[in-house]
Amino acid sequence: MVFKRRNPRPWHVALGETVYPRGGWWRAVLYVVHRLRRLPDPPHRIGRGVAAGVFISFSPLFGFHLIGASLIAWAIRGNIVAALLATFVGNPVTYPIFAYAAVLLGHWILGIHTGLGMAEIIDTFKLASVEFWDNIKAIFTTAPTQWGGMKSFFNTLFLPDLIGSIPLGLIAGIAAHYLTLPLVDAYKKRRTRKLRERVEKLRGGAGGGPEAG
Asked: In degrees, to the nearest 5, what angle opens at C-alpha 145 toward C-alphas 140 and 147?
């Protein structure tokens, strides 16, 4: 395979780099920005792709962010590669902030008044996770299945997170679109100018030599 690593990373190294990339988060951000600027597409299409990737990054649909970003970018005629790169906005550092804000907004929209704090949210996640695996094991045993914890998780966390993530993602996506346009446009203009200057310099050097005769 062309993109296969020559020396595969151990699983614990790969897992660690999902939390803290090699070289740090700032270097990772600069890499994504560099890749976005160099995409061979008009700025408005790249901006739409970025908007799609940022929007989907606010959703709790883990495992479907890349597919969702691609579909949204295709639907709005954005750059799909830009959408995939922009999903980097949703990462282990930022997502807890996104999720907490989305849950609070979702509770407000749905009229839920539970006053969940971070400790209660973590406990709800734990209870739902334990109950999920207990239900999986119950398939192969005579133990009864229980859904109270998962029902509470869905009603108090997942659904509010999903509902709240839509307006937050729209706002962030639109903002990212308009921030991307001047960045990509300036880079492409500067690159075009440098290429033109290089061509003119080469032409000047070729035409300035001694005349044959």
From this structure: 140
Q: Go through the chain and tell me how many residues it has.
A: 213
Distance CA 70, CA 180 (A): 18
For the residues 146-150, what does the mean pLDDT come to? 75
Q: Which residue has the tokens 């550092």?
A: 93
Q: How is residue 86 written in tokens? A: 């922009």
Give the C-alpha separation, 29 to 123, whole Å.
32
- pLDDT by residue (tens digit) across 167-211? 999 999 999 999 989 888 887 787 777 777 777 777 776 655 555
Q: What is the pTM of this model?
A: 0.71
Q: Which long-range contacts (CB under 8 A, 24 or more apart) does 25-33 make?
A: 25/91, 25/93, 28/88, 29/88, 32/85, 32/86, 32/88, 33/183
Residue 69 φ/ψ region, left for φ over 0, alpha for ψ in the -120 to 50 degree band, beta for the rest: alpha
Contact partners, residue 33, CB within 8 Å, separation at least 6: 183
Q: What is the DSSP letter of 90?
A: S
Tell whether the model's pLDDT for residue 111 goes beyond 60: yes
Task: Give Cα separations from 131 to 71, 124, 151, 161, 198 (angstroms).
Answer: 33, 11, 10, 20, 65
CB of 132 closer than 8 Å to CB of 150: yes
